[in-house]
Write a structure and sequence with these properties.
The protein is 26% helix and 29% strand. By secondary structure, the chain is α+β, with helices and mostly antiparallel strands. A 3-stranded antiparallel β-sheet has the order 1-2-3, with no helix packed on it. Strands 4-5-6 form a 3-stranded mixed β-sheet, with helices on one face. α1 packs antiparallel against α2.
Length: 143
C-alpha cells in the first residue's frame, strides 16, 4: 500500500506528496481545459506512468539477464477526446531500445513491457498502441 496525499492549491494546481519518500510533484490543468499548462496535467501523468512503468518492468527483466538497457527511451503521445465526456482517447507509445533487432531476449523484453500494470489498468476504449524500435547495432565481428 502506498499513500499519496494531494492538496488543491488553487488556480487549478495541485501538489501531490508521495508518502514513502516525501517527494512532491505539481499538476496544473492544461491550457485547453482552463489551466496554465505550467506542469504535468493529471492525464499527462497517466501517459508518463505508462512509459515509465513499461521501462521499469523491462529493466527488472533485463537485470535478471544481465542486459544493459541504459539509454532506452519512451515517447508517449496522449490525445484527449474531442467530444464529451472528456477522457484520454489514445496513448500511443514508442519504446526505443538500444539493442539490435536480433537480440536473443527481444521477445522476452517486449512481453515484459506488455505486462506493465499501468497498461493493464487502462480502459479498453483507450487506444494504447505500443511500438518497439530496436535501435542498437550489432558489434563488429572479429576477423
Amino acid at each position: 500500500m502506498v499513500k499519496i496525499t494531494t492538496t488543491y492549491e488553487g488556480g487549478l494546481r495541485c501538489a501531490a506528496t508521495h508518502g514513502p519518500s516525501g517527494t512532491t510533484l505539481l499538476t496544473d490543468a492544461p491550457v485547453d481545459n482552463h489551466g496554465q499548462g505550467e506542469s504535468f496535467s493529471p492525464t499527462d501523468l497517466v501517459a508518463t506512468a505508462l512509459g515509465a512503468c513499461m521501462m521499469t518492468i523491462m529493466g527488472i527483466v533485463a537485470e535478471r539477464h544481465a542486459i544493459d538497457l541504459v539509454g532506452m527511451q519512451v515517447e508517449t503521445v496522449k490525445e484527449m477526446t474531442q467530444t464529451p465526456p472528456r477522457r484520454i482517447a489514445s496513448l500511443r507509445t514508442r519504446l526505443t531500445i538500444p539493442l539490435p533487432p536480433d537480440h536473443p531476449k527481444r521477445s522476452l523484453l517486449e512481453q515484459a513491457a506488455l505486462t506493465c500494470p499501468v497498461h493493464k489498468s487502462l480502459h479498453p476504449e483507450v487506444d494504447a498502441e505500443i511500438e518497439f524500435v530496436w535501435a542498437g547495432v550489432d558489434p563488429p565481428q572479429a576477423s
